[in-house]
Amino acid sequence: MFKDQIRNLYRVNLNLKGDETLLVFTDNEKDYLIDLLPEFVEVALEITPRVKSLSYKSTKVHGSEPPEELWELTFGQEAVRELKERGLLDKVLRKESYPQEEVEGILKEKAEDVPNVIVAFPYYSTTHTFYRKVLTEVFGARYASMPLFDPSMFLTSMDVDWEYVAKLSRDIAEILTEAEWVHVKSEYGTDIEFSVSGRKGIADTGLFHEPGDFGNLPAGEAFVAPVEKEAYGKLVILYAPDRELERPLTLKFIDGGVESIEGFEDYRYFIEDIFKRMPEARYIAEFGVGTNPKASRPDNLLEAEKILGTVHIAIGDNHTFGGLNKVGFHTDYVVFKPTVLIGGRGWEKKLLLKGKLQKI
User: Fold this and answer.
1) How far apart (Å, rounded) are the C-alpha atoms in residues 23 and 26?
2) Is residue 107 within a helix (H) or strand (E), and if so which, with residue range?
3) What distance lies between CA 52 and its chain's CA centroid?
4) Residue 157 and residue 300 in contact, taking contact as beta carbons nearer than 8 Å
5) Which one, of 301, 15, 270, lies nearest residue 141 by Cα?
6) In CA terms, which of 110, 116, 187, 221 is 20 to 30 Å from 144?
7) How many Å separate Cα 263 from the centre of its chain?
8) Alpha helix (H) ranges present in 145-204?
9) pLDDT tens-place string over residues 182-239
10) How far apart, in Å, are the Cα atoms of 162 and each of 150, 192, 294?
11) CA 229 to CA 264: how far, in whole Å?
C-alpha cells in the first residue's frame, strides 16, 4: 500500500545501497506496525539482498533499551554471549552503571555483520538508547528512528522538501550551539528558563547519508541537551505523547528537575510512577525547535515535535546526545505558539514570537 513511499524513504532519506546490510524492526504494541513490517522488507529486497527484520515484545517505555533478541540479531550471538558472560548485558539493558569502553570493545571485537542502515519503527522510541548510540558512534550506522509512526505520515510530514528542512534545522542548530541560555513562554502558562551553555545543537535533517547519521522520520528539528540541573520555571503540557489531555498539567522545575506536578489528569499518575521508579527521569533532557512545514498533528509526539513554529522540552535520558543523564525514560512535551528568547554573553535574540519563526 505504501511501497512507493517506503522506496522513497530508502533511496532519498537513507541512500540505501545494494551492498549494504539493512535492519528493520518494530515492536508488537500496535497491529498496524506489525502489518507494516513485511512491506518494509519486501521493498528493501528490491535494493539489497542483505535484510534483517524483527518484531519484538513492547518495552512499554520510551527510551528503554531494546531486548536481547534485537541485540543478538544486530551484533551476533558471539558478541551477546560475551557480554552476558561478563555480566554486562543486563546492566546495559537496565541502564545501570557499566564500563562503556569495555562493552564497546567487546562489540567491536566480537560483532559480526553489523547493519549499515537501521529503520527502527517500534511504538516506543529507541532513539535515546545505548543500542542506538553504539550503532551510530562506534559502527557508523545510519539510523532512522520512527517511534509512534503512523502510515498516514507518508502522505504528509514525510512528503516534504528535505533540503529545505535540512538547511533550516542546521541553521537553528548552530544558534543553539552558540547560545548559553533559553527562555520559553506560552500564552497558556509555560514560563521556563534553562542553560544550554557548552552544549552542542544537533540538526535532525531527515537525510541520513553519512556514517553515524541518525534522527527521526518524519524529521525536522534542531535540538540540544540543556544543562541538567539549571532549569527553573513551569512547563504546561496539553498533550501526552499520543493523546490530548483532558486537563492541562503543569510541571514545576527547580534546579533542573520537576519539583511538583499540578493538575488532575490520569497521565499525572503515569509520570509520578516513573519518578518513583526512576528518580533521575525528572530532570530536563532536551530542548528542540520544530522545522517541518508539513507536520501538523498535535496528538502524535513524533510529528508534533516537528511542527514548524513549535518547540518541545523533554525530561529523562540525554546521555546519548551530549548530556549527562542516563535513565530508562525520555519523553518530550510540545509547547504550541511559543515565544522563545535565546542568548549568550553579550547577545540575545527572539527565535520565535507566538509561534512565528523570526529571521535567523
Assistant:
1) 10
2) helix 100-110
3) 22
4) no
5) 15
6) 110
7) 27
8) 162-178
9) 999 999 999 999 999 999 999 999 999 999 999 999 999 999 999 999 999 999 999 9
10) 19, 31, 11
11) 26
Look up residue 104 and give its three cell numbers.
564497546
Q: Specify the amino acid at residue 63.
A: G
CA gap 149, 259 in Å, rounded = 32
Grid coordinates representing 54 are 524483527
pLDDT the model gives residue 11 = 97
**Grid coordinates representing 74?**
544486530
Which residue shows C-alpha cell 502510515?
A: 151
| C-alpha cell read off for 230 | 539549571
Question: Measured between alpha carbons, how far is 273 from 207 in angstroms, rounded to an integer?
Answer: 37
pLDDT at residue 279 tops 90? yes
Angle, CA 202 vertex, CA 196 and CA 206 arms, to 5°: 150
Distance CA 70, CA 322 (A): 25
* Buried/exposed code over 288-308 (b: 16+ C-beta within 10 A; e: otherwise): bbbbbbbbebeebbbbbbbbb
Of 238, 255, 242, 240, give the one whose Cα is nearest residue 192: 255
Distance linking the first and last C-alpha atoms of the chain:
40
